[in-house]
Amino acid sequence: MAELDYAFLAEYAKVEVGGNLTAIGASYTHISVPRFPSQHLVSIAGRVRSRVGEQPLLKASFRTPDRSVQLDFELQLAATPEARPYGPEQDTLGLQFAVSFAVPLPTSGLYDVDLQLDGRQVRTSPSPPSSRRVGREVVRIRPTTHFRNQMARRGVTWNDVNMVLDHPGATWPNPKNASVVYHGTGADGRTLHVCLVDPTPADGVPVGKTVFWTT
Question: What is the pLDDT of residue 125?
Answer without folding.
Answer: 65
